[in-house]
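Hallway conversation turned thread

IA: we were arguing at lunch whether anyone had actually written out RNase H type-1 domain-containing protein end to end. Turns out nobody had. So, for the record, here is the sequence (301 residues) and right after it the structure tokens. Reply here if something looks off.
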Amino acid sequence: MQIGQLPLFYLGVPLFRGKPRKGVLRHIADKILSKFVKWKGKSLSLAGRATLIRSVITGSFMHSFMIYKWPSSLLSLNNRKLRNFLWTGSCKENKFVRVTWDQCCRPYSQGGLGLKDLGLLNDLLLWKFTWKFMTSYSFAFSFLRERYLKQLQNPHGGVGGCGGIFLNYRAFVKGCFVIPFGQVFAFKAELLAASLAINFDWKYGWHQIWLERDSSFVVQLLFSGSEMVPWRRRRRRRRRRSRSEAEKKKKKLIGGEEEKEEVDWRRRGEEEEEADRRRRRRSRSAAKKKKKRSLEKDEEE
């Protein structure tokens, strides 16, 4: 088995690295335009040659135009060959005509032949693919969008904030959060976003936390226990949350002991309410007696 070098072709598709070059795509253009040699163009009428260009040649470029941005020099060369075949029947012979190629590419309603300019067709197919890439809900396009694209907005320069987007292992969005706060340093916003993300993970029981590469410095601070991290605030929140959860959810006991504990808690609550009622009654009676004594003293005087 021989090891080839890029660029190479597999099933007629070029394999290369980086931006498509003229030398790579010329092979595709020569293969498509070689059909002109097999056709007896001079024996065909002008309408017949225009039909062949519309249906066969232009259709053969469709798939490649939808994927690659062709160089303008190669597109102008191919347009010149199509023009020569239209007027002379051969892509190598040139003929002087008064009708421009732009006029031939106009629709029938505007006096043209309904042909397609290859440069304009390349741009239109790329825009069509881009629209499908941004709006399609298929698994492939959704994965590529979440993996390679970011939706960025430029906020006001004097307004700072922190936020984050939660993705699962398939790069699907599971949630997000944004918290605006005045003018702060970017490091502080990034640090608060990381701490809030950890709190969210703790709340929902997520076991793995992946932060983006630009947050590596924050990750080092979080694992080193640095004083720059607001650990006190996070611990305070965790204690408050643990107390509230402890009041709402008791430890699970076996069998009827859990029900017994719930009954005991209800009984204690009822006893406390009854004690409060007695205390109020005593205070009311004491206030009445005091008022009665003061009235009697006033009458005696």
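OS: looked through it. The first helix runs from residue 22 to 33.
IA: good, adding that to the notes. Residues 8-130 form one domain.
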